[in-house]
Design goal:
By secondary structure, the chain is of the alpha+beta class. 45% of the residues lie in helices and 23% in strands. The chain folds into three domains: 168 residues, no CATH class; 85 residues, Pdz3 Domain, CATH 2.30.42; 74 residues, Roll (Pdz3 Domain), CATH 2.30.42.10.
Length: 445
C-alpha cells in the first residue's frame, strides 16, 4: 500500500503540473486567436483513454504518462503533423502570428510553472507556518553515524558554523548540503566547551552525494530517550513502563539517547531483555519483550515536546514574498548541484534519476504538506528543464524565435522539422539515461 500511495501522489502531482503547464500555452494561444486542435494530459500514442471535442479543440487523457501537450495549428511540434505545414498558412495558425506573440505562447508554460512553484511555497508558509529546530537549544549536541565519524565529528559536538556560516536552524541535511553544494571545508564545533575546527576532506563532496551513502544521516539531534506515551496492551505496558520514564540501558548496555536505544532494541529483536530506566529521580529495572521489528510499544518526546523547536507564523502578505525567497533559494541550490556535476565533483549516476527517484520523494502515507512541497519543487524543475535550449522543448522553440526576432529571418519548416527530430532524440536519450540509473540502483550497481 505504501508504494501505491507514493505512485498515486506522483500521478496526481504530475497531472496538476502538466495540465497547468499546458494551460500556460493554451490561454495565450486562444488570446491571440490561434487554433488549438488538441489539449491532452499524457500522450495518446495510437489511442486515448478519454477524449471529447468542444468547439475546435479535442480534450483528452492519454495512456502514456510522460507529460502532456497542446497541439497548436501551424506549428512543428511533438505531433509532427507535417502535412498541415505543406498547405498555405492560415490567419489562425501559429506560423502566421507575429514573432512576439509566438514567443509569449511558447513561454507561457514555464511561466505558469515558475509562478505555481512560488505560489505553492508561499501558500505552505501561510497555511503551515515554518517550524524549525533551534540549534542553540540542542543542549546535548549531535550524534553522528559512521560517515560523520570519518569526517571528524563526535557524539556530543555542538555545531557552531559550517564553511563560515553560523548554524542557527538545525536540519540533519545541513552537513550534506553545505559540503556538497557550497564546498564547505571547515566545520566549527563546540566540543566540551572548546572550539574545534574539523577540516573536511574534499573527497566527501563525492561521497556525501553518492547513491551508496544516500541513506546515511551523517548527523542528527541527540535527544534523551523519554517516554511520551505507552500504547495500551503493548509489551511496554505489560512491563510497567510509564510516560515520563527515561531509559538508561538496554540489555545491560548503556543507552540514554534515542538513537542509542533504537539501535539497542534493533539488536535484540524477538527477545526478552532487561531495560533500565529512571522514574522520579530513582533508577529501576524491568523485563520487556521486544517484537520482531525492534519495537516495544511506546512513543517518544521529540524536540517540540522538549521545547527545542520554534514556529514562525506567516500572514498572507508575508507568505508570498517568503515563498519567492524560498523558491529562489531552492533553484540556487539546484543549479549549484548541476554545477558540481559538471565540475566532476558529483557523479551523474548518483545525481540523476528517473521516475523511480521521483516517486521515492513522496511519503508512503498521504501527507498533504509533503505532497505540496514536492509538487512545488517539481514545478520549478519542470520549468527549468523545459527552458533548456533543446529543440522539441519550449526552450528550443524560444531560441529559434529569438533568432527570428533579432535577425528578422524565420527558420524554414525543414530546419524546424529536423531540429525537432534531433531534439526528440536528445530528450529520449536523457530519459533513458535517467531511468537507466534508477534500474542500476535497484540492482545495487
Amino acid at each position: 500500500m505504501g508504494v501505491l500511495t507514493m505512485i498515486a501522489q506522483l500521478i496526481l502531482s504530475l497531472s496538476i503540473l502538466v495540465v497547468l503547464h499546458e494551460m500556460g500555452h493554451f490561454i495565450p494561444a486562444k488570446w491571440f486567436k490561434t487554433r488549438v486542435e488538441k489539449f491532452y494530459l499524457f500522450f495518446d500514442v495510437k489511442f486515448s483513454l478519454f477524449k471529447k471535442k468542444i468547439g475546435e479543440t479535442e480534450y483528452g487523457i492519454g495512456w502514456l504518462p510522460l507529460g502532456g501537450y497542446v497541439k497548436i495549428a501551424g506549428m512543428v511540434d511533438e505531433s509532427m503533423d507535417l502535412e498541415q505545414m505543406k498547405l498555405p498558412p492560415q490567419d489562425w495558425e501559429f506560423r502566421s502570428k507575429p514573432a512576439w506573440q509566438r514567443l509569449i505562447i511558447m513561454l507561457g508554460g514555464v511561466t505558469v510553472n515558475f509562478i505555481l512553484g512560488f505560489l505553492i511555497f508561499g501558500m505552505m508558509l501561510w497555511g503551515y507556518g515554518k517550524e524549525y529546530l533551534d540549534n542553540d537549544k540542542m543542549q546535548y549536541g549531535i550524534y553522528v553515524d559512521s560517515l560523520g565519524t570519518q569526517i571528524g565529528l563526535m557524539d556530543g559536538d555542538k555545531l557552531v558554523s559550517i564553511g563560515g556560516v553560523p548554524v542557527e536552524e538545525f536540519t540533519p541535511s545541513v552537513i550534506r548540503r553545505e559540503v556538497v553544494l557550497n564546498n564547505a571545508k571547515v566545520i566549527v564545533v563546540d566540543r566540551d566547551n572548546q572550539m574545534i575546527n574539523v577540516n573536511v576532506d574534499p573527497k566527501y563532496v563525492q561521497i556525501l552525494s553518492s547513491n551508496d551513502y544516500k541513506d546515511y544521516s551523517v548527523i542528527g539531534p541527540r535527544i534523551p530517550f523519554e517516554v511520551a506515551k505507552v500504547t495500551e496492551g503493548s509489551n511496554a505496558a505489560k512491563a510497567g513502563l510509564q510516560a515520563g520514564d527515561k531509559i538508561v540501558y538496554v540489555d545491560n548496555k548503556p543507552a540514554v539517547y534515542q538513537h542509542e536505544v533504537v539501535k539497542g532494541l534493533s539488536e535484540v529483536k524477538g527477545k526478552r531483555i532487561r531495560l533500565g530506566y529512571i522514574r522520579g529521580g530513582n533508577q529501576a529495572e524491568t523485563e520487556v519483550d521486544v517484537d520482531e521489528k525492534g519495537k516495544i510499544g511506546i512513543s517518544l518526546k521529540g524536540p517540540a515536546e522538549l521545547g527545542w523547536t520554534g514556529r514562525e507564523e506567516y500572514s498572507l502578505g508575508r507568505a508570498i514574498p517568503g515563498g519567492i525567497t524560498e523558491g529562489v533559494a531552492f533553484m540556487g541550490d539546484w543549479f549549484k548541484g548541476i554545477g558540481q556535476l559538471f565540475k566532476g565533483n558529483v557523479k551523474a549516476k548518483d545525481s540523476l534519476g528517473g521516475f523511480i527517484t521521483i516517486t521515492k520523494l513522496f511519503s508512503t502515507s498521504w501527507d498533504w504538506e509533503s505532497f505540496w512541497r514536492i509538487t512545488g519543487i517539481l514545478s520549478f524543475i519542470l520549468a527549468i528543464m523545459n527552458l533548456l535550449p533543446i529543440p522539441a522543448l519550449d526552450g528550443g522553440h524560444v531560441v529559434f524565435l529569438l533568432y527570428e526576432v533579432f535577425s528578422g529571418k524565420k527558420p524554414s519548416d525543414k530546419v524546424m522539422e529536423w531540429s525537432t527530430y534531433i531534439g526528440f532524440a536528445i530528450v529520449l536519450s536523457l530519459l533513458i539515461l535517467a531511468n537507466g540509473f534508477d534500474i542500476m540502483r535497484l540492482f545495487g550497481k
